[in-house]
Amino acid sequence: MASNQEEIKLFGMLASPFVSRVEIALKLKGIEYKYEEEKWGNLSETLFKYNPVYKKVPVLVHNDKPISESLVILEYIDETWKQNPILPSDAHKRALARFWSNFIDDKYMNALRKVLYTVDEKECKIYIEESEVALEFLENELKDKFFGGEDIGLVDITAVFIAFWLPIIEEVMGLKLLNIGKFPKLYKWSQDFNNHPIVKEKLPPRESLLAFYKARFAS
Amino acid sequence: MASNQEEIKLFGMLASPFVSRVEIALKLKGIEYKYEEEKWGNLSETLFKYNPVYKKVPVLVHNDKPISESLVILEYIDETWKQNPILPSDAHKRALARFWSNFIDDKYMNALRKVLYTVDEKECKIYIEESEVALEFLENELKDKFFGGEDIGLVDITAVFIAFWLPIIEEVMGLKLLNIGKFPKLYKWSQDFNNHPIVKEKLPPRESLLAFYKARFAS
């Protein structure tokens, strides 16, 4: 638990899966924090001050010291509060967890971003295939209930987008992206992850996200 | 020091700054390893087996367990062999070191890759400006002799490309990329880094790199 003298603030945005990663990790550790909601397209001066490089959420501010970039924040949280570890203790397993969480950002999230921002149908199909190649790697990597074993860990938390955001994007865009036939293990994982008591409590309301993405894709 | 029973192998390529990162880190730790040179455009079956996801160097194999991605390997090395730490011990400083080393890959290396692969002069100029914005951030971040303080650390090692590769690329392309007038601290850092006894011993021969890049840009 954080001591009384500690001040922990999270600058976030309801619709951001990157912020959701940090919220799940803090909840897993049992850490209380103050949450500041930033406005899409109209970020606060405070956020610019804390994250002048990327100018985006999430930013975790611990006793006035800001930390940006969700994966960097997750490592910080795991090193600062030791209870309920997010990373394995074995060095090689830690390396694999870092490898796969980076993979999700570099390969999967990037491919999906292209799916979302491409108007041309043919091009979009190519990016969907690219994102499916990435999912295939994750499907093969999933050996237990969670990527972290019986408990959720770094890779599971990083993959929150796949579990919770993806079905919403599917609904908005009328696409099937996490196909249960193609990725049965990943599909089951997504159900188990979303129903995990800690995760469930921290996920944003589905209807709000749906409204947000509907508005965004319409414009 | 690695014990006698340990088997440490590095799959690399002379011209790769990502491999150089791993070589410098292993040398800093005083770890002996077997080096396997991979061929540009004709990678070995062993490398494909060890890094089926990205199919590229570097791959560190420690007692038959492979680890890919240079920044993941650096963290593994630092966790496995504790002498001469690469990362600071303080959690917030560790987060900053990770932030800036990711920044070098995400912002600087990506911008520079675009400089190198763009034929159009106008477009090239835009990417050079983008790379200079990234260097400006690094210039402002450099407060001591090295990013790691008086000793080299994660950010210095990650930035080996800027110190050693960049002047070679400048020569091959006839461009000025690390301008001493614009980036005086970074320029001095690059000299200190290249002359660091550990670094100096592990950098590839300048003439070989020059020949490699000349041939590559000619084709």
Automatic annotation (TrEMBL), chains A, B:
GO terms for cellular component: cytoplasm. Pfam families: GST_C, GST_N. The keyword Cytoplasm does not apply. The lineage of its organism: Eukaryota, Viridiplantae, Streptophyta, Embryophyta, Tracheophyta. This is glutathione transferase. InterPro entries: Glutathione-S-Trfase_C-like, Glutathione-S-Trfase_C_sf, Glutathione_S-Trfase, Glutathione_S-Trfase_N, GST_C, GST_C_Tau, Omega/Tau-like, Thioredoxin-like_sf. One of its GO terms (biological process) is glutathione metabolic process. Residues 90-217 form the GST C-terminal domain. It catalyses: RX + glutathione = an S-substituted glutathione + a halide anion + H(+). It comes from Trifolium subterraneum (Subterranean clover). Its EC number is 2.5.1.18. Keywords: Transferase. Residues 6-85 form the GST N-terminal domain. One of its GO terms (molecular function) is glutathione transferase activity. Belongs to the GST superfamily.
